[in-house]
Amino acid sequence: MRLKGKYYKRLVFKFLQGEATPAEQRIVEQWMEQQTANKKFVESQKGLLLLTEPKQVNYDVDKAWGKLQQRIAATGESNNATNAESTVYRKRIFQIASISGIAAMLLLAIGWFGLLNNAVNEAGKTMLQVASNQTVVHDALLPDGTLVTVNTRSILNYPEQFDNDIREVSIFGEAFFEVHADALRPFVIHTSGLDIKVMGTSFNVKAYAGTGFVEVAVSTGRVLVYPSGIHPERGMMLHAGETATYSQTSGKLHKGVVDDLNFLSWKTGVLTFRETRLADVFKALEDKYETTFTIDNPDVLNERLTARFESETLDQVLETLALIFELKFESGDAEIIVH
Questions:
Q1: Backbone torsion region of residue 59, taken as left when φ is above 0, otherwise alpha when ψ lies between -120 and 50, otherwise beta
Q2: Is pTM, for the whole model, over 0.90?
């Protein structure tokens, strides 16, 4: 479920954390009653917050939640719990303790992804984590009001409270940031080898382990990118519509323009093709649906497609391609074979 406005996202988090005013509570309750999807979104966020240590607040969230569910049940709507298979979790992962002047760090091992960046960790600071599994994209609201959409197989680390002079986070994988403007506190994102500094803007960061590169694509505003350990003044400024690719092998930065219509398809759910070669179509499908295509006849890769897919499953997209180009698709052990 993707909310259309930042307003409701922020109200939902305030509601679940017991920080909403009575008027804001009524707004959230009314919004939930409008659509089942709205209610499911709030339920999923409640499940995430329950995984963290509950805050001591005067407002009884569970009591209010129970009353609201009773009201919804009275209208005949279903009150199923959040699907356990759609597990996205937000955990308090570690605190730093000083031992003989050395910071000791406890890392939470997460199955397929155990290495965490400690670039923003300081003695005594509590860190939080948002981790998305292989099927779920998760929206997170940071303490300063910044909104982050975390792609699948990705991890976002951030402090429970930002410092007075800087806001620092780290990302492993891919995420889209809508940074809350604060001229007095720059927002810095640490990746594996590249740092990004902003004041307030929106952009995409792609830094999956094992790829050998980090990509930044700016949607609005501007950002400053620079290799870790280099003074920001020696970095590269990017404006809306521009990209930067950082090679972790050579340490070089390359500036370009956003020419991929689908660089945010993982977030929007929309795939757009305009006279696009099938070679690029299959690449976009591989990125979005996390699969691999093997082509029997390379000639088909030069065919061109103009189409738009919005929230279709991979099977539905392949059915369309099969009809247009007279293709056949066969599922292998870890790939899809195109005949």
A1: beta
A2: no
**Are 72 and 79 contacting, i.e. CB atoms less than 8 angstroms apart?**
yes
Report which of residues 132 and 103 the model is more confident about.
Answer: 132
| Claim to verify: residue 273 and residue 294 sit in the same structural domain | yes
Q: Are residues 317 and 179 in the same domain?
A: no
Residue 43 falls within a domain, yes or no? yes
Amino acid code (one letter) for 160? E
Tell me which residue range forms the domain holding 195.
88-257
Say if 167 falls within a structural domain.
yes
Main-chain dihedrals φ then ψ at residue 25, nearest 5 degrees:
-60, -45
User: Per-residue pLDDT for 87 more than 50?
Assistant: no
